[in-house]
From TrEMBL, chain A:
It comes from Flavobacterium defluvii. This is MCP methyltransferase, CheR-type. Transmembrane segments: none annotated. One of its GO terms (biological process) is methylation. The keyword Transferase applies. It holds the Pfam family CheR.
Automatic annotation (TrEMBL), chain B:
Keywords: Chemotaxis, Hydrolase. It comes from Flavobacterium defluvii. One of its GO terms (cellular component) is cytoplasm. One of its GO terms (molecular function) is phosphorelay response regulator activity. PANTHER family: PROTEIN-GLUTAMATE METHYLESTERASE/PROTEIN-GLUTAMINE GLUTAMINASE, PROTEIN-GLUTAMATE METHYLESTERASE_PROTEIN-GLUTAMINE GLUTAMINASE 1. The keyword Hydrolase applies. Residues 6-185 form the CheB-type methylesterase domain. The active site is at S18, H45, D138. GO terms for biological process: chemotaxis. This is protein-glutamate methylesterase. Its EC number is 3.1.1.61.
Amino acid sequence: MIEDIELETLINEVYEYYGFDFGSYSRASLKRRVYRVYQLDGFTHFHDFLSKVRTDPEYYKRMVDEITVNVTEMFRDPSFYNILRKEILPLLGTKPFIRLWHAGCSTGEEVYSMAIMLKEAGLLHKSLIYATDINATVLETAKKGIFPLKMMKEYSQNYRDAGGQEDFSRYYTANYGIAKFNDELSQKMVYSQHNLVSDTSFNEFDMILCRNVLIYFDNELQKRVINLFDESLAVLGFLALGTKETIKYSISPGKYKQYEKEKIWRKIK
Amino acid sequence: MEENKIIVNCKVVIIGGSAGSLNALMQILPSLNKLNNFAIVIVVHRKSTDDQTLEELITLKSSIPVKAIEDKTILKSGFVYVAPSNYHLLFEKDDTLALDTSEKINYSRPSIDVSFESAAEVYTDSLVGILFSGSNTDGTQGLKAIKAAGGTIVVQNPLSADMPFMPNNAILFSSPDYVLNNKEILDLLNSINT
């Protein structure tokens, strides 16, 4: 493993040379991620790694792409999607136009899950899904809507657990080990790079989803990001976080109402 | 049965297990006394869908208070913590728990190795790691990390494990301080910090 002092040196140098601040990232996870790319790329001395990051902007970019966690799946936590289908979408459906924001969307599996839900609720035609991530490489994957075919068995099970009634395979075309999702779903998606650490609000949304991103941030940064969401959310809009995340340390109680046990909050004032 | 299994200055006992470990835990946890200035953290492989059931089962059977883990839960002595399914569990230097959705390790999330290694870094010689029944190799690397950091490592006697593969692998590739059956593990836990 790398030493704490080495990690702090890396954080400082990245900030100094590239202006990106990992200082508010949770250390336990960040350390594992940095060590992972360090090993993956065959480094044996930390100063060699540090000097590569400092002098080679291409390598710096690769390092950032590798240390940000990009593991995601379709219909992760089916019970969340069940509530979405039964309770949230009918409320959103009363609006003439629905704006959604997937913050930290990674390779887009959750964005396509949402598009499928909207389609089945008859709302996709009047929705626009903004999906952002800090990592430009994953956004390219997300735009294409191409996922490994071997995952479809698990995803279609998740989809059914989430109350899906259709034949899941109608949403994609299978070809040589890949599943390409229908263009009809991606037509209503807008992808762009956005950094939750340093970028500001860019629109007003009816629903913001940011699931399993805040777990990588310290309390201070979580507070800032949740306030960014608050600024970007219309009154009576919804905020959805990961199943183990909360807003309760970040925002004054009474401003949001939680949906029972789910990690969905409605902005009530 | 070996004598002198007295462990002092223990802050955290971390328990790992996979297939068959639930049986062992249910034999041990209900008879556990109050925890003497240490916390127990349980990391077991389970299906991503049955999230709360293990916590509920332990709450039902044991008098030790159980806490489900959320992002940045603070680890306090006297409590049993259960790692959620579908996240890796990590330890921060300020005694908070961190979750991570990165790639599965040893086909598992939570991975026992990941949690054991992370706990070893933070709690060094005040950590006890116990590995129970299972049918893969997860946990062995983690036990080695705990041992290397000065902690104590315990492996369930494979003869008393429903699935002996995991304990056998650990005995083969790490050097456990103790190999114990369930009753002996219970006695060990009750003797910690006394």
